[in-house]
Amino acid sequence: MADADIHFYFDPVCPFCWMTSKWVRTVQAQRGYTVDWRFISLRLVNATVDYDAQFPPEYEAGHTAGLRLLRMAARTRAEHGRDAVALLYTALGDHIFDREPVPDTATDHGYRGTREFVEPVLAEAGLPSELADALDDAGRDEEIRAETDEALALTGKDVGTPILHFEPPTGVAFFGPVISRLPGDEQALELWDHVIGLARFPGFAELKRSLRERPQLRALGVGEDDVGTQEDWHGGSRRQKR
Fold it and tell me: Each residue of 128-158: pLDDT tens digit?
């Protein structure tokens, strides 16, 4: 989808990425934008990181599950086209984040990268179950790594997910925005215009605070009308620096 209005680089296990994707879909529906859903792997971004020192215990299993899901998404794109990736990501996000709370354990987070988890997701998306064979296909990692590098080349490496590129190839690109609440239709457009306006300002680099509310996602124990507990994040992790 070379002429897409937005390139959205996602990792399917990132809750903030999922929140941003729902906001972008709200904007897309009102503005008529086309979106190309592309890949960025948190497991590959953090390939040289000491997970035990930098992240809570469940993160390595969760990030590895995300890489496995991206392998499946890459095969989906190759065999069924880019529009099928949008359907798959929607179904994955719904099953991962918009369901009942999931314990913060390596077993529960790793389960998201298993055939048992993904087969109902594929069925919901109208995609064949044999796509789950790609979960173990490390041969697809080169493609995912190349797309991850493509995303990071747009923003620099000290970022997380998602990365958005508006009006590629020459338009603005940025990490985020990181949001914990889903805006309504009018607010969604207002936020979009502010974000794009800020990103387009020559020389602008960063506007950030590490305090974040837990996103309004059922899997994180926060209802859509609730406000999540505020936590201080460092480098994409809730674990405080030692």
Answer: 999 999 999 999 999 999 999 999 999 999 8
Residues, the chain: 242
pTM of the model: 0.94
Residue of 223 and 85 predicted with greater confidence: 85
